[in-house]
Amino acid sequence: MLDLARLRALHAVSVHGSVAGAATALGYTPSAVSQQIAKLERETRTTLLERRGRGIALTEEAQHLAATAQELLAIVERAETALEERRGLPTGRLTIAAFPSAARGLLPGVLAELAVRHPSLDTRMTEADPHRSGDLVAKGVVDLAVTHDWDIAPLPLPEGVQQAVIGDDPCDVLVPEGHPLAARDFVRREDLAHERWITQPPGTVCHDWLMRTLRSAGYEPDIAHRAAENHTQVALVAAGLGVALVPRLGRGPLPPGVSAVRLAPVPVRRLYALWRAGAARRPAILEAVRTLQAHF
Fold first, then answer.
1. Can the keyword Mitochondrion be found in this entry's annotation (predicted)?
2. Domain 169-267: what homologous superfamily?
3. What's the mean pLDDT when you consider all of the chain?
């Protein structure tokens, strides 16, 4: 009989594309995941992973086995949800994915409250880009995801995934001290046409939103610096190297030398909680979503 934990490890590798990524998602070491895959290969007498360049790839047999593993994990989840629902209390393990600023600005308080109020609930968090969160939930890699989108860049919802609004996170334009716009009550997009911008790398939700929004004002943004972390963007602004559009969640107090100016209309990203439809009645999911909304 195939071992469910080993199938879970293979499924995680198929989703993340690497042993290291699977290990991070599962809370194991890469060595432990490799050992699980090796044992599964011996059980099935099948080669599951093969070298491809500097990385690894699933063999055709492994891809079929990973798809079956996803079905089995969904059945197990339904059984666990039914048991937890009968008890009426959040129990077991709850894995949560969150984008970096939510992981920093929202999740610490949420996780701490859940630990105090529900000691039988084992919550585990991992950072994940909003573009990937929906798939991680749909494929059963995580139980819950905190993600976001923008008004002109909505994120698609995968089949079988449900959502609830957590709240709206407004953004401000950050400018260096002494900047001509620093004393303004608000600025419009047209006022920013000749600025040097500090933003996240291409392909991220925030970068794509900024490019679309400023282009809609009739000009091509001058992107001078790219940094994934909001705190790095703030530091670059403080050094006088450009301006940045930074959300308030997880931003923290601004350092000396940086001013926040309201952009009109105010850009807002909306935060959501995502979970699989099959786990919608699970007490742990319901309590986590309630706590996220309350803390936000």
1. no
2. Periplasmic binding protein-like II (3.40.190.10)
3. 89
